[in-house]
Design brief:
86 residues, alpha+beta, Mth169, Chain: A, 4-stranded antiparallel beta sheet, 4 strands
Length: 86
């Protein structure tokens, strides 16, 4: 079966306060980057899976992301299209 890499980006939901993001903004302001208005921190994963095709790879990683990589109560996630591993 072919091997695919799927990138997963996990971020806090907009309604959830992000203290780390706020601290980053305040630090940037103190360093002179006054134009930075907002930062949201998150997590990034590269998941390699064996699947019959790109669609099956995406479905598998979507399931994994919703089950383990993201906390559905406070986080949301998005996937990049699967890329075949060369």
């Amino acid at each position: 079966m072919p091997l695919f890499t799927v990138r997963v980006f996990v971020t806090l939901k907009p309604s959830v306060f992000d203290p780390q993001g706020r601290t980053i903004v305040e630090s940037l302001h103190s360093l002179g980057y006054a134009g930075v208005a907002h930062v949201r921190q998150g997590k990034y994963f590269e998941v390699q899976v064996e699947a019959a095709d790109a669609s099956a790879a995406e479905a598998l990683v979507r399931d994994v992301s919703g089950t383990l990589l993201a906390n559905p109560v406070i986080e949301s996630f998005r996937l990049e299209s699967p890329a075949p591993v060369a």
